[in-house]
Design brief:
The protein has 4 helices and 4 strands; from the N terminus they run ββββαααα. A 4-stranded antiparallel β-sheet has the order 1-2-3-4. It starts with 13 loop residues before the first strand and ends in a 9-residue tail after the last helix.
Length: 132
């Protein structure tokens, strides 16, 4: 049996999300525990990435690390999609910054758009419900 080391007491509390090991960070997830220390109520807060916490913006609160990471990824995809949409309209960077919705709204609209997107199986059906 190996010797005990203080690292066994370490618990992850914050995660910086980035695409790949060299990618730029896009979100930060932080674990919070509330209430009874023996049976805490655990939540994960997701914010946009910025070098200092004062520059970060709330994306949302989640009940699991997996859901928080998914919200961070959806924010990354939503912001990229939004920027491409405005760039296609030839909107300049200053106007883009003025028009940018809050991060939580970007994610909400992005997820709603994904739910509305037709799937291959729905596109292959006739009005009577039979597949073509």
């Amino acid at each position: 049996m190996g010797a005990w080391h203080p690292v066994t007491n370490a618990q992850a509390n914050e995660w910086v999300l980035r695409q790949g090991t060299l990618g730029a960070p896009y979100a930060v997830v932080r674990r919070f525990a509330f209430g009874d220390p023996n049976r805490p109520d655990v939540w994960f807060r997701v914010v946009t990435w910025a070098p200092a916490s004062t520059g970060r913006e709330l994306i949302g609160w989640c009940r699991s690390l997996e859901a928080a990471a998914a919200a961070g990824w959806d924010y990354r995809c939503a912001e990229e999609s939004w920027r491409h949409h405005l760039a296609a309209k030839r909107v300049d960077a200053a106007a883009m910054a003025d028009q940018r919705p809050p991060a939580s709204e970007l994610v909400r609209f992005y997820r709603a758009a994904l739910r509305r997107r037709p799937t291959r199986s729905t596109m292959e059906r006739t009005p009577s419900g039979r597949r073509t």
